[in-house]
Amino acid sequence: MDVLPPGQSAAPLAPFGLPAFAARRPRVPAAPVVTVTGAVRRPAQVPAAELTRLGRAETHSGLHCVTTWSALGLRWEGVPFAAVHAHLAGRVAPGRAARWVTFTGLDGYRSTLLLDDALAPGVLLADVLDGAPLTADHGAPLRLVAPAHYGYKSVKHVCAIEYRAGYDPGSAGWKAHPRGRVALEERSRYLPGRLWRPLWRTLLPRARAAYDDLRG
To answer: 65 with 74: CB under 8 angstroms?
Structure first.
């Protein structure tokens, strides 16, 4: 059973993210591909269907938004990123310097995980949520699910994977934390996480309203 992390309140799962991306409603391609670049010897484009056949797994976990709400009891299904990485290693040959991995969505949103964090148990490229195919609202065709990390790390509509030698803050910019671990309240690289709680709780209604308005 899910337990609420420090500073979080339970809420239903609903589409949410940076308001700047709210109006971007990417069309899911009929035959999606994932482009793999960065600190690799042989960049490649890999059909998403090839990745989703690597070995199915489930993760039962919550989605914890940095803005202090958590949707609990979610059942994600997809392919462990560890299996994806092992499959890609022979094709693109990541260099030894590749310690970080940046995921980018069809809407242009991107976020970065430490490679060791991305390879942890439970991290998936998911295409099923609660027994049903993932919808566009929740990140189809593939969504990164990283249960130990805040939701801004779980990129929707994954279409690109970039191996990197250094950290890229991604679309969240200065507001992001390099690790973003929920248990440690790594809400941002600036100020302790507990100090962000009242700020995010104050800003959340306005941020949610702005996001919903832009979505139309």
So the answer is: no
Residue 84 lies in a domain: yes
What single string gives the DSSP state of each residue in 48-114? HHHHHTS--EEEEEEEE-TTSEEEEEEEEEEEEHHHHHHHHHHHH-B-TT--EEEEEETTS-EEEEE
Residue whose C-alpha is closest to residue 111's, from 37, 191, 173: 173
**b/e 51-89 (16+ beta carbons within 10 angstroms → b):** bbebeebebebbbbbbbbbbbbebebbbbbbbbbbebbe
Euclidean distance between CA atoms 13 and 63, whole angstroms: 8
Q: What was the pLDDT predicted at 167?
A: 96
* Per-residue pLDDT tens digits for 88-102: 998 999 999 999 999
Q: Does a structural domain hold residue 152? A: yes
Q: Is residue 5 part of a domain?
A: no
Tell me the CA end-to-end span of the chain in Å, nearest whole number.
35
Please identify which residue in the block is written with the tokens 């989703």.
52
How many domains is the chain built from? Answer: 1
187 located within any domain: yes
- The CATH number that applies at residue 209 is 3.90.420.10
| Per-residue pLDDT reduced to its tens digit, 32-70 | 999 999 999 999 999 999 999 998 999 999 999 999 999
Q: Token match 């049903």: residue?
A: 132
Q: How far is Cα 160 from Cα 142, in angstroms, rounded to an integer?
A: 11
